[in-house]
Amino acid sequence: MYIQLVRTLALVALLATHKTEASAIRVIHEKITVIENVDARSPPNIIFILGDDIGYNDVGWNNPNIQTPHMNKLAKEGVILDHFYAMPLCTPSRASLLTGLYAQQLGLQRGVLDFQEPYGVPLKYKFLPQLLKTRGYHSHALGKWHLGFCDWRYTPTYRGFDTFFGFYQGYEENYQHCLSPNYIFDPIIQGDVFTQQCENQPAARREFCGAMIGLDQVVHNITEALKRHNLYDNSIVVFVSDNGGSTTFGGNNFPLRGNKGSLFEGGTRVPGFINSPLLKKTGYVYSGLFHIVDWYTTFLHLAGIKPNKNSNLNGVNQWESVSEDRPSPRTEFPYLMDIIEGIKIGAVRVGDYKLINGPSGGFSDEWTTENETVDKSYDPNFMTHYDTEIIKAYNLTDLSPKLYNLAVDPYEKNNLANEEPEKLEELRERFDYYFSIAKPAVKMDADPKGHPDKFGGIFTSGWCEAYDDVPVIISK
Ligand SMILES: *[C@@H]1O[C@H](CO)[C@@H](O)[C@H](O)[C@H]1NC(C)=O
Ligand SMILES: *[C@@H]1O[C@H](CO)[C@@H](O)[C@H](O)[C@H]1NC(C)=O
Ligand SMILES: *[C@@H]1O[C@H](CO)[C@@H](O)[C@H](O)[C@H]1NC(C)=O
Description:
CATH topology: Alkaline Phosphatase, subunit A
Bound molecules: 2-acetamido-2-deoxy-beta-D-glucopyranose
Signal peptide: 1-24
Cofactor: Ca(2+)
Helix content: 10-25%
Shape: globular
Organism: Strigamia maritima
Protein name: Sulfatase N-terminal domain-containing protein
Structural class: alpha/beta
Family: Belongs to the sulfatase family.
């Protein structure tokens, strides 16, 4: 059955390393097959492709050894976002994207939602497609969710998406919805034709490289489908990653410092582009600051929707700046704000400067080399006890402030905290401000009620009561 659409938001949250892509493109093909009476002045279609764990050095436009020719072309014929920032991990990034609020305003700044954690984005926060609906958008999400699912009201079709095709957690077997024993590399991709095209890569990076080739073809297929159905001219295609690459799983953030999870740039400065005939200027690199929380405000602007003042959105509208190569309206942002064992964790960016308040997190804060794959600092079984690992990843005895001038030192080699006390003070004030408005992290123990054994071996919903707002949980 085909659905007649005027405007579409498709959130395609793809795991580069999962086979969901093939299914994603199939569903998108179906959804956009019949289009009639598209008004040229109607708000644009938005195809938002969110890559999972794709690092700065994992895309062809930053690294010629990665074979993403179609995405390279879309990026080069559109606008490359070279100072695009996400949060350091999946759940916080996705929450920021879909609510327009920094994850620390939602209690979701610490780690990711665990398998049986009875929490999700509280219901009072409206997701982007809920607002787009007021302008007649139909929205479809495919792939990974990771924003809570224990109460049905946390799940995509209760949060504005008309359809959802994917899985609710961070890693789960794509089709069976059981806990995948091999959660990162889906057996369908493993050893397949794409990986064979990656033999020049170090062994531990071959599957990742193959998955990027697969992703590239999916992105190509999506844009071709838009063109075939005369939708492309009124569409905006976005690709970004949700956090930095993880060297353990074949990702790479060279030349940036730090790994997935880190407050150094490697954990948060990720590849991205916008491709759209609606852009006034194309074929250039936008070097203004752009944060993942900005998409919400930007898309509302494009859809002609004025957000409710009480929603206190954290994003800024980036459209005119990106479209016309003007200075970014964003001049600062918090990377993350948390408090663990009384230690204030977080980082803030103000202009060219960045302050990491103390512990920097991440499973490695070192600089990775170009083809480095395995981060020796972390435990291969860590996924089974992720949150304790997140806390362990912060060196809580490292209280020294780290101040960098990223304009001259983008790889964070030269700590200026002692040399520039006035700058340090200025950034510390902004840090304290963002810290003061952040909500405490919500971290709940796994609830046995959500165990797959209770549901015939699958992960599913219906075993908790959703929160309307961020609860105050006394966390460890
Ligand atoms: C892209 O489309 C082509 C042609 O329909 C198809 O053969 C191919 O499998 C698709 N690629 C992916 C990765 O889905
Ligand atoms: C990284 O791998 C690519 C592809 O095999 C190779 O061309 C390049 O020389 C390698 N770089 C380094 C520094 O070893
Ligand atoms: C933690 O930080 C302290 C203080 O900077 C340092 O002496 C120590 O070596 C660090 N520990 C680890 C495991 O890196």
